[in-house]
Amino acid sequence: MLSQLIKNSLEQSVRQVFTALGTAVTEFPSVVLEQPANPDFGDYSSNIAMQLAKVLRKAPMAIAELITTEISQSGGLHGLFCKIDIAAPGFINLYIDWQEWAGRSFELPGAAGEKVIVEHTSVNPNKSMHIGHLRNSCIGDALVRILRKTGYSVEVHNYVDDLGNQLADTVAGLLNVPLAGDHVRFGDYCWDIYAGVNKEYALHPESVHKRTEILHALEEGHGNTAWLGSLVAERIVREHVAEMKGFGIGYDLLVWESSILKEGFWASAFALLKQTEVFVQETEGKLAGCWILKQAVEEPSEAEADEHHKDKVLVRSNGILTYTAKDIAYHLWKFGLLDKDFSYSEFNAGLWTTGLSGEQLAFGRADRVVNVIDYRQEYPQAMVKQALEVLGYTEQAEKLHHVSYGVVSLSPASAAELGIDISDGKASYAMSGRQGIGIKVTELVQLMENTIDATRSDKSGLSSRLIATAAIRYYLLRFNLGTEIIFDFKQATEISGNTGVYLMYTYARAGSVLSKAGTPAAETEFNAERANPSAVKANLNAERANPAAEKANLNAERANPAAEKANLNAERADPSAEKANPSAEQTDALPVFPAKLQKAELALLRHLSNWQDTLYSASVQLTPNTICNYAHTLASLFNNFYSACPILKGESETVAFRLWLTQRFRDTLGEVLEVLGLPQPERM
């Protein structure tokens, strides 16, 4: 990774300066690198000399001179820098020799074969999915791809709450609410049933007891009601899985909440918690009879108490477990901390499910856990972390990450299209499953496909449906995680600007240039699949095109977490291991770079060099939108280069360099699109 290599060089030079001056120091300040917007101030710059002024009792300019002298004497990273200069009041500006950079190979810091469980989607199995659910799935799948790309072994879970209020309400509706009408899918029928039963509750509050009765029946797990609930949940989960397959989203394991109870996970977790002082049964007050997890931190304020107190209740006074209780048991299993395991059977090709019978497989036992759940679940997630801490599992608690994100609401225009009264003039309108208000994923895909189909003159490239799903996916990924997305039909169906369509179009444009130049994409590392313009399906690798088969198609390291650790190469296992010298093959393949690069050429090169840093940062911060920002800037810089610098015209050396730069761009954007889960089309 380029930035890490430069940072290591600066740190080493600083240590040598301290040694030369005979100055002892217990802790060196962290070297901070930045990339100046204006390349006249260097490709990289550091203010480390100013940070050291007080310690070394020298002027920053003098310290900068000492550091740069050390860098030069050590070989300037084997010629990676073509120039190093100093600027007042003490900046060290480093200029990359781009010919040298192009001939080298850089490695990401190693993940050391760590296993990560990523849980995402986890939609209640009681009705069809809406776009709010889809945002979760897109974020989760992008994180899976990012973590795998950076060397982690990733296991993908979809948690199915088949014992929750929502399923109980749908079952109550099926048993008590008459409904007619045309419905293509069972999930759509249940969408209306769910809204209908909640309307019934509002009109006849005394009927809410049906929910409690059904919840008890579902937890007991036998009898007509339990079997009906199981059939409803399974049918809807199959629809959810198929729906996500269309977006290139897949899972390794479906974890059913009922399995956690039936396999005795909660009983084991309960026994562990009872040994602590913070898990007690209340004997008085409004929580009398409840088993609660006392707060290890400051109690919430009075205003927050009513909102949050139920989340620390693990067992209600009527004996029904809360979601948080089952989640604690589930996470103890995720980290391999329970003396229990599931049995596993195939749900469909490549996708496994928990159950009472089946095989024993190597699921669970994670080093890290990532949960993609919206911001409204921050408090319950904190309770799970607290439970791990009070049980003494502090290391696991630190490695439990909640990826929180904002919900998806409706713009006034979109709300009006759905028949919602917008006379109150709100800026956005919340979706509500209980009221039947929302945009189903299937409806959105069809709308997007129709819009794209109507605007295309040439339909021989990527199918309109693939373009539609890619565009929706990117739209939901590009926002900062904490941002509430105010969904607007018109904005979502745009195909210009910061969109997935723009990225795919730019990728296809680069391929077209290379094809005209007689430089087929088949000669690159992104080969056979991209080399056939007519093979649309071949443009998607197996994981994206068939998520159900993902498990079967994973390479040996990914499919076998134990083997992955052993198979990681030495450079990845050692973060400091970089290939310092270009290979002869790489050098021979490189054209001669211009003595002076055009602004558009330099800007594109600089951004290309940031890909590994961006990918690594996204894997640490768990922020897919970081990749989207990088991708849009990369595509924009290439299109600027395409307009400003004739690629196929000019001196032979200039054409050779620009074709190389185009190929490097295409290869890099191909990796970016793969990480984002978007196709890499030969033509649109």
Number of helices: 33
N- and C-termini, Cα separation: 33 Å
User: Roughly how much helix do the residues carry, as a percent range?
Assistant: 40-55%
Radius of gyration: 28 Å
Report the principal-axis shape. Answer: globular
Describe the largest sheet. Answer: 7 strands, mixed
As a percent range, the share of strand residues is 5-15%
Alpha-beta classification: alpha/beta
**Spans of 5+ residues with little confidence (pLDDT < 50)?**
521-588
Number of strands: 17
Please state the average pLDDT score: 87
Walk me through this protein's architecture.
With 684 residues, the chain is α/β, with parallel strands linked by helices. Helix content is 51%, strand content 11%. A 7-stranded mixed sheet has the order 11-12-7-6-5-13-14, sandwiched between helices. Strand 3 and strand 4 form a beta hairpin. The longest helix has 25 residues, at 652-676. It is globular. The two termini are 33 Å apart. Residues 521-588 have low confidence and may be disordered.
Q: Keywords, please?
A:
globular; 684 residues; seven-stranded mixed beta sheet; 17 strands; four-stranded antiparallel beta sheet; alpha/beta
Write the layout of secondary structure elements.
Layout: H1 2-21, E1 33-34, E2 44-46, H2 48-51, H3 53-56, H4 60-73, H5 76-79, E3 81-87, E4 91-96, H6 98-102, E5 115-119, H7 131-149, E6 153-160, H8 165-176, H9 186-203, H10 209-220, H11 224-245, E7 253-256, H12 257-262, H13 265-274, E8 279-281, E9 291-293, H14 302-312, E10 313-315, H15 323-334, E11 343-348, E12 351-355, E13 368-372, H16 378-390, H17 394-398, E14 400-403, E15 408-410, H18 412-417, E16 429-430, H19 441-455, H20 464-477, E17 485-487, H21 489-492, H22 500-516, H23 528-531, H24 542-545, H25 550-553, H26 556-559, H27 561-567, H28 570-573, H29 584-589, H30 599-608, H31 611-621, H32 624-644, H33 652-676
Parallel strand pairs: 5-6, 5-13, 6-7, 7-12, 13-14, 15-17
Antiparallel strand pairs: 1-2, 2-4, 3-4, 8-9, 9-10, 11-12, 15-16
Helix pairs in contact: 1-4, 7-20, 7-31, 8-9, 8-10, 10-11, 13-15, 15-16, 19-20, 22-32, 22-33, 30-32, 30-33, 31-32, 32-33
